[in-house]
Amino acid sequence: MIHLRLALQTAFAAFASVLASGASAEPPLVLATNGSFFVGGRMTEIDGRATMVGHMYVEFMEPVRKKYPYPIIFVHGGLRTGTNFTGTLDGKEGWAQYFVRQGYAVYIVDQVGRGRSPIVEKAYGPSRMGDAAGVQKRYAQQEKHKLWPQAHLHAPWPGGGEMNDPWVVALSASQAVEIQNFRTQQELNRDALVALVDKIGPSIILGHSQAGAFLWPVADARPNAIKAILAIEPNGPPVRALDFTGAPDWFKYGEVSLAYGVTDVPLTYAPPVRDASELKFTQQEKADGEGLARCFEQVEPARQLPNLRDIPTLVLTSEASYHAPYDHCTVKYLQRAGVKPTFVKLAELGIKGDSHVLMLEKNSKEIAAIIAKWLAKSVPAGKKQAAR
After folding, report:
1. What is the pLDDT of residue 12?
2. What would the DSSP string read from start to end of 207-229?
3. Mapping DSSP to helix (H, G, I), strand (E, B) and coil, where does residue 297 land?
4. Spatial separation of the C-alpha atoms in residues 342 and 320, rounded to whole Å
5. What is the mean pLDDT of the chain?
6. In this structure, are strands 203-209 and 72-75 parallel, antiparallel, or unpaired?
7. pLDDT at residue 240 tops 70
8. Is it the case that residue 87 has pLDDT exceeding 60?
9. For 133-191, what is each residue's pLDDT tens digit?
10. Active-site annotation holds for 209
């Protein structure tokens, strides 16, 4: 225990040094305003006390020189908080500051029951904690464990992969307790994000990982207010859960986890469905390529997602992530449902080897630039249009 404590102390000291040396060379970030507030939720009584539940913490930054009319809402993934977007593991500015510098106002949330949005188990049900060993296997030492076909391609992780490595310590330290039931997460975050959009007006919404399952129901509920969807390795694959088993089989297909295809909460389909059981799915007999999972798709004729059809949508995937084997399944599902997503594979643009936490790796700014370029083309600067 003493040796472990000393190792961790050394790791934290090393990380502090990294932060000091990794400070951004950017000029000072000049803001017109910044602050925070809570949105959504309701008052209830728990153990005889009036208690707020279902509310979401929101931090905002608005540049002095605002170039684009619609703000970007940043929604983090599982076991994380909004800090994923406000700094990298090597002490540089995060995606939030990057987009402020491009001329966007940004809103960074902590999911309901996460971080600065307090978790209330008596209202939300049991919680779960993160696992530092999982950090190693999925992000820091994925090339060692080789649980999925692309894992060995990993490159831009900023440090080593041992448990006491400063970057592993930093990422493990950022893990936050979360609501255990994923459907409950989706219901609560859908409602809070809709309340945020209603408060701030027409917006662009960016979701990473777990938050992918929130993007579609929020856009479905406010199709005229969501001006673009940025799905950064969004939760998936559609319909059934997927576990990684390593070579030679790689994949184990589990139970239905997303009953409405890309989410587990209701979406507007045409023809309409009264219940998820009316949606019929089938699995590909053969994968689309080597190292790819076999997708679950709607049985033809596929019901459409009319409220998502006209919203510019980006699905972005890195080369070495555990999403690399299946994000194409999300794209295919959306396409069959009438949505027209742009599918960006970073490796095809020469950006190689990133893991799932691509906004924290050494080339995070380069990846943000790809997103910014797509946004500038798909949602150009101009006069703000009100939601209808």
Report:
1. 41
2. EEETTHHHHHHHHHHSTTTEEEE
3. strand
4. 20
5. 92
6. parallel
7. yes
8. yes
9. 888 888 888 998 999 999 999 998 888 888 888 888 989 999 999 999 999 999 999 99
10. yes
**What would the DSSP string read from start to end of 226-243?**
EEEEEEEEES-SSSEEEE
Reported for 37-42, long-range contacts at CB under 8 A and 24+ positions apart, including other chains, are 38/117, 39/192, 39/195, 39/196, 39/199, 40/112, 40/191, 40/192, 40/193, 40/194, 40/195, 40/196, 41/112, 41/192
Per-residue pLDDT band for 11 (boundaries 50, 70, 90) equals: very low
DSSP letters spanning 31-57 = EEEEEEEEEEEEEEEETTEEEEEEEEE
Q: What is the largest CA-CA distance in the chain?
A: 63
Whole-number Å distance between alpha carbons of 378 and 122:
43
Element (H, E) at 316: strand 313-317
Q: How far apart are CA 313 and CA 330, in angstroms?
A: 12
Strands 178-179 and 127-128: antiparallel
Catalytic residue among 117, 172, 203, 209: 209
Tell the residue number behind the tokens 């039931």, with chain if given. Answer: 181
CA dist 27 and 8 (Å) reads 33
Whole-model pTM over 0.85: yes
Confidence of residue 8 (pLDDT cuts 50, 70, 90): very low
pLDDT at 381: 74
Helices assigned H by DSSP within the chain:
2-21, 95-102, 121-124, 132-135, 142-145, 166-173, 182-200, 212-221, 327-336, 364-378
Consecutive H or E run containing 58: strand 49-63
What are the chain's domains? 2-378 (3.40.50.1820)
Compute the Cα dihedral for 93, 372, 208, 155 and give only its sign. Answer: negative
The residue type of 169 is V
Q: Are 299 and 280 in contact (CB under 8 A)?
A: yes
* Number of alpha carbons in the 13 Å side-chain half-sphere of residue 81: 22
pLDDT in tens, 253-305: 999 999 999 999 999 999 999 999 999 999 999 999 999 999 999 999 999 99
Residue with tokens 């539940």: 53
